[in-house]
Amino acid sequence: MLTLILLIVAAVGLLAVMRREAGALPALAVLALTCLASLFFASTLLGILLLAGALAVAAAGLPALRGKWLTPRLFAMFKKVSPKVSDTERTALEAGSVAWDGELFTGKPDWQALLAFKDEGISDEERAFLDNQCAVAAGMCNAWDIAKERADLPQALWDHLKQERYFGMIIPKEYGGLGFSAKAQSLVLQKLSISETLMVTVGVPNSLGPGELLLKYGTDQQKNHYLPRLADGREIPCFGLTGPRAGSDATSLPDTGVVCKQVIDGKEVLGVRLNFEKRWITMAPIATVVGLAFRLFDPEHLLGDEEDRGITLALIPRDTAGMEIGRRHHPIGSPFLNGPIKGKDVFAPLDTIIGGTEMIGQGWRMLVECLSIGRCITLPSGATGTARYAIGWSGGFARIRRQFNVPVAEMEGIQEPLARMTALGYIAQAAVYQTANTIDRGEKPAVPSAILKSQLTEFQRVILSDAMDIHGGKAVTLGPRNYLGIGYSANPVAITVEGANIMTRNLMIFGQGAIRCHPYVLDELAAKDADDIKAFDKAFFGHAGLIFGNAARAFTLGLGIGKSAVPFDAVAAPYAQEIGRLSAGFGLCADAAMASLGSTLKQREMLSARLGDVLSNLYLASMVIKQWHEGDKVEDEAALVHYSCQFLLGRAEQALDELFDNLPNRALARVLRIVVMPRGKRVKRPHDDLARTIAQAVSRNTALRDKLLRETWEADDGSQPNFLAHYNALLATQERAESLYRKVNKAYAKGELPADALHPEQRVLEAAKAGLISEEDATFMREREAQVLELLTVDDFEYDAFVTDKSKVLRHHAA
């Protein structure tokens, strides 16, 4: 019995030391004490085993001992098996900064580090722009008009965008721009997401493109010339990166520039002769200045000894000789301006290189550093704004659309997708806002940018699909009244551009995060490259302590032992503790995968994707918790927090479960499953009661609906109809209408109204005649039903309206 007690004491003591990553000396103390007690009072065999364990800990844990024999051998082995990091990969890894994503890799996230990113909101000037200028822009948009009738924004809208300097949101005021914060940029794009084309048109010039590149790297002359002209729309920019053979693998672009001399106006000018073919370039058809990425060569050594000077960026005026520009692509579902650019023997002076000759060969680094911020804002904000509108439209439609004498919002088949899309929209709002807030606090979130871009655009896909299902025939019939169908068909654009989601999920999130965000891996690789054995010893054994710490934390927390204190209320605290548990499991599994697969993990994309899924869901859940913690809480919002966190953490557990099923080393997989999930999956799927509560709240005139629809265009004050405003107006009188519906339908069911009163308007008329309702109520219902019918109505057209070539029309009933 005493032997068993001593064994338990040793195990518990070691787990406590490991959880705290306290180091070798406390572990030796535990082993030494239990060893002596065992030798003198219990089992000699156990004492010998504990002594052997103590010797092993001393040999590996004490620097003076391990430095003589263990570290040199480990260092030599590490040099052989560690993956080679190319210059391109190293540039990507060094770009941006690490914040909360790094905390999740530690397995012991410090919530105070996240809460330290205080949210000071947006300025009065930014708020006024959102409430006024953005409302004007949104009010000029009709999806059908833009997509089908003009394939462009209206001229008045273009004039408004230029006059109000939308294209200069990121440009400081000293250059004539708006100088907006990242949060304000995001909220502007969310409001403008009533039109996919409008959001892209404003978002792209404020994301990856000449403006941001000039701000960070341009010469003073380039900034002073271009930035004021970009801010007020005198110059329309585009950026040419991708081409027929270089899409996701942008570093392999075959476009070339050759350093040469050319006589211009009688003077010999040193410059670059460019040959390129670009496609999928947003704003290209109307751009006045083209940012261009190309591979620069100097075969005549006009700049120095190097011939291959690397990827370089330049800014080329549209009217430069040899440039072919102006044709359009036809993006699916959305006519935002996008097209190819070609150039043959285009000569550009050296002063067109962004940043001047000092930035030659720095193009990839420049692009990656800009992308880390741009990808956090433009497409994630577009997805979030789309979610806001889709939730508002769908909740309103589900409440006014009646079948079987009840609003379809009362049917559980509608409540399920309505709740799901609402939760995904809520998650998106929290994630994009809180990440933009970290940018405003000085961070350049590289890994979160990949998480937000891929996850939120995938959410957008689900949200739009659910919205289509809820609307049914209303949404599948195109025309000016259809506010949903064109955006639905355009969704693949967001999935594909700025790093296709397949590539981002499979290669970038974990692939970049495993090195960039890990507390020790980057230091280990740096020590290898510098051949610094002392630095390696410090990093490697710190890493080893982290592995043991995560194993102990994951196992004990998985058993429900030793939950850490978290600075949140009763709603959020359990989810923060679950994030801590899964973070420890994730950290352990990440290290196990890297150790067991080594450099081949790059090729095991499905495993890398699942590890990325765990990180993504933990990150998104953390943003939800922070938003709840700091926000103005409204009735029924807690249900959304519960649903969102259960959804996200359940997905994280599922990804870990699939990882265990597919790790090639089956023994390792079984051990990891026992350590990380000793009690199996812990997170349950969101309960149906939550779905019912959310669906009811979002389909009625409630504080929760109001909160979710903030930063949408809700006023019916534009040149185009605002369907969201119409739904909101009907929901404001819904309780009165419901009472009258029940009274009239009950009378009809009892036979108190004529049997042929089949339409609601007829029943209301007959009920008023019979004195069952007042004339005032009858007038109210007739006016309301007219509004409802208008919202339920779909468009129809002339027989040959959609035929481009009228000579091909088939007249099936010509007689």
UniProtKB/TrEMBL annotation:
It is an enzyme of class 1 (oxidoreductase). Residues 238-337 form the Acyl-CoA oxidase/dehydrogenase middle domain. The keyword Flavoprotein applies. Keywords: FAD, Flavoprotein, Membrane, Oxidoreductase, Transmembrane, Transmembrane helix. Its cofactor is FAD. Residues 124-233 form the Acyl-CoA dehydrogenase/oxidase N-terminal domain. Residues 515-797 form the Acyl-CoA dehydrogenase C-terminal bacterial-type domain. Pathway: Lipid metabolism; fatty acid beta-oxidation. The chain crosses the membrane at residues 39-65. Gene3D superfamilies: Acyl-CoA dehydrogenase/oxidase, N-terminal domain, Butyryl-CoA Dehydrogenase, subunit A, domain 2, Butyryl-CoA Dehydrogenase, subunit A, domain 3. It catalyses: a long-chain 2,3-saturated fatty acyl-CoA + oxidized [electron-transfer flavoprotein] + H(+) = a long-chain (2E)-enoyl-CoA + reduced [electron-transfer flavoprotein]; a medium-chain 2,3-saturated fatty acyl-CoA + oxidized [electron-transfer flavoprotein] + H(+) = a medium-chain (2E)-enoyl-CoA + reduced [electron-transfer flavoprotein]. Its EC number is 1.3.8.7, 1.3.8.8. InterPro entries: Acyl-CoA_dehydrogenase (IPR050741), Acyl-CoA_Oxase/DH_mid-dom (IPR006091), Acyl-CoA_Oxase/DH_mid-dom_sf (IPR046373), AcylCo_DH-like_C (IPR036250), AcylCo_DH/oxidase_C (IPR009075), AcylCoA_DH/ox_N (IPR013786), AcylCoA_DH/ox_N_sf (IPR037069), AcylCoA_DH/oxidase_NM_dom_sf (IPR009100). The keyword Flavoprotein applies. Residues 361-501 form the Acyl-CoA dehydrogenase/oxidase C-terminal domain. SUPFAM superfamilies: Acyl-CoA dehydrogenase C-terminal domain-like, Acyl-CoA dehydrogenase NM domain-like. Belongs to the acyl-CoA dehydrogenase family. PANTHER family: ACYL-COENZYME A DEHYDROGENASE (PTHR48083:SF33), MEDIUM-CHAIN SPECIFIC ACYL-COA DEHYDROGENASE, MITOCHONDRIAL-RELATED (PTHR48083). NCBIfam families: PRK09463.1, PRK13026.1. This is Acyl-coenzyme A dehydrogenase. The lineage of its organism: Bacteria, Pseudomonadati, Pseudomonadota, Gammaproteobacteria, Oceanospirillales.
